[in-house]
Amino acid sequence: MRPRPPVNGRGIFTGTGIIITGLLATFVALIFPIWSYADRSGTSVDVLNAQTVSTRYGPLSGLDRDFVTKVRLAGLWELPAGRQAQQKGTTGAVRTAGQHLVEGHTFLDERVRGVAAELGLELPDEPNDQQKQWLATLNSTQGADYDRQFANILRLAHGRVFSVVAQVRAGTRNSLVRALADDANTTVLDHIKVLEATGYVDFDALARDMVAGSTPPITNSPAPAGPTTDPSPAFPAFPTFPVTPSPSPSYTLPPPASSPPPQAPEIS
Fold it and tell me: What DSSP designation does 1 have?
């Protein structure tokens, strides 16, 4: 019979140490997610609460304030763009789209100024840099090129803000902002449809821009001076609205136009 090899005490302890280390690693892996999120600051809920102030119409979040600012900014450049389209548009459909922009944003601008006054918010008085660039592009074009630029620039801008309107309408706790989102949704959807009815919208390019592009920068409006002493219960929208709101406009869309013929390539 062959003699048994001597027992190596160091080897036993080394093997035991590996097993214990593995068990500890498994325990840490299981407990870490609980520890890391149980009492963690900086979460989306924390940010929401930090940026929210109390008003008598319900809590007003940072997203709510950004939305009010965006509605105002939209009117500051789309109103002049609509007036311009009524003059420079070469087709009836483009001129009709310009009319919709003018009437829709005249209505929304009145609404947003009333909401801002009720909530104590400051509003911008000029378009942002991206919107000024769009206006400069429209100012520099003529004829069918103007029609095409007008339809595609305005359709892109409306598509971007449409998703913001939906997000605000779904999540806001402020009755004034909720009512403004309803009006903005109706107006923006009308403008999207009437711009598409020009026949100039390039949907392939639009899809690429919507995926790759980022929303234009916004000018953040300040929060109201401070929370009210008793924010509840929330008041319904417009109990003492300072400006009598006009009824929401409704339009008859023009018939969809056939796509204009593609431009001939320039010969250099």
Answer: -
Q: Which two tokens stand for residue 77?
A: 């450049």
For range 107-132, the mean pLDDT: 96
Single pTM value for the model: 0.66
Determine the Cα–Cα distance for residues 138 and 95; give it in Å rounded to an integer: 14
2-30 pLDDT, tens digit each: 555 555 555 555 566 666 666 666 554 54
Query: Are 88 and 168 a contacting pair, CB within 8 Å?
Result: no
CA separation for the pair 231, 185 (Å, rounded):
27
DSSP lists the bridge partners of residue 53 as 60
Q: What percent of the chain has pLDDT over 70?
A: 60
Let me know: does 205 contact 152? Beta carbons within 8 Å: yes
Helix (H, G, I), strand (E, B) or coil at 3: coil
Handedness of CA 86, 82, 242, 170 (dihedral sign): positive
pLDDT digits (tens, 9 = 90+) for 204-232: 998 998 887 654 444 444 444 444 433 33
What is the Cα–Cα distance from 149 to 91, expressed in whole angstroms? 13
3-state SS assignment for residue 159: helix
CB contact set of 13 (below 8 Å; sequence gap of 6+):
none
- In this structure, how many other beta carbons lie within 10 angstroms of the beta carbon of residue 139? 13
What are the tokens at 185?
């949704």
